[in-house]
Amino acid sequence: MIEDIRLLDSVSDLEAVRRLYEQIWRTGASNPPVTADFLRALAKAGGYVSGAFDGGELVGACFGFFAPPACEALHSHIAGVASRARGRSVGFALKLHQREWALARGAGEIWWTFDPLVRRNAYFNLAKLAAEPTEYLPDFYGPMDDDINRDDPTDRLFVRWRLESHDVEAACAGKIRHTGAGPVPALLATGHHGGPEERRTTARTVKVAVPADIETMREHTPDLAADWRTALRDVLGGLLADGGRITGFDRNGWYTVERA
């Protein structure tokens, strides 16, 4: 795990964050996910901006701002880790640092969004961090001109990280929340040729699949990726809109959902 994580506020460090995000999302300098001047203002206004360093090189960064009512929750807007540093728990270390910073300022929760089609992010957020998904947001950010999202609508899951809950404290101590789908029927599965296959069941507990690598699918078979976006929005988004609750996500790519 990366140990050197610190708050950032200098222009040079914030420029390094901008460049790192450009590399991760492959946007180029003309369309960065965030600018150094914005991060400078955010840090000055009391927001959270941190970086993870490996031998003096920035390999991960995260920033967020407080949500109303004042200072009770922090919205974590963007977190990213360089591809060369993946698998070294950099993202986990950044979230632990962010949690301690937020608790020290009286916040009880941290909120953020993630793409529910990205399997590794779903597992990280729901199993490793024990965050609670509360809302499905269709095309939340609108079109995003980068090589990760491409032309895909920016559907997101909104999660709440209750900082002093038993599950979150256990997660921060390294305990994975095991809530696999198990032997329950699927409402959405992987069908022929890797496409989504919707099914029917009256069971109260159901599972919903996502593909193994949606980012590669967007690059090589964009029509298939679009089919997955539509199917997940209809099925998972529909379950949450009807009062359902996501209770977990496993490494095999299944959400477990309790219907209302």
TrEMBL record:
Ranges of residues in domain N-acetyltransferase: 3-149
CDD domains: NAT_SF
Organism: Nonomuraea soli
Entry-linked InterPro entries: Acyl_CoA_acyltransferase (IPR016181), GNAT_dom (IPR000182), GNAT_N_AcTrfase_prd (IPR038764)
Molecular function, one GO term: acyltransferase activity, transferring groups other than amino-acyl groups
Superkingdom assignment: Bacteria
Name of protein: Putative GNAT superfamily acetyltransferase
Keyword annotations from UniProtKB, A to Z: Transferase
Signal peptide residues on this chain, from the entry's feature table: none
SUPFAM superfamilies: Acyl-CoA N-acyltransferases (Nat)
